[in-house]
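Researcher: Here's a chain I'd like modeled. Treat it as a single chain, no partners, no ligands.
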Amino acid sequence: MKKIACLWLMCWLGLQTQAWAAWVYFDGNYGNALQYYDPNIEAKGKSVTLRIFNMLTVQDMVPIYDAGAPKKLRMVVYSSDLSTYEFNCKEQTIHLLSRTFYNDVDGKFPILTYKHTDKFIEQGNSDFAKQFRKRAVYPNHDKPLKMMNLACR
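Model: Modeled as a single isolated chain. Structure tokens:
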């Protein structure tokens, strides 16, 4: 199965535009997604910005906040997402700045983008909203630690 996925990925990458050719494989997320990072890691003062793109193997759902709707939230299916993280290497913290969800695995058709400054995120108490809060990176946090090691080289 991994050989088929790798072959498919190589074909997919070969057909993509030059912009996607720069992305580097990051992780398989336990078989749930193919994850890539942008090697153009930006350092600004004390912080470092890292972008991670996830191509899901199975579609997932994201909440969309609608203040005018009776239930205020509805769920929408997405196939890939792009997350932008900020790391403070000295303090060893991670902060999810934004997350864009796409209708397709190639990341060409965005559905919506959430930013850490959105009212829905700032005032939210759900697990979804909590992922946007600045937090410490601990040695037992596998993925955040791996991302911080990339960002803070």
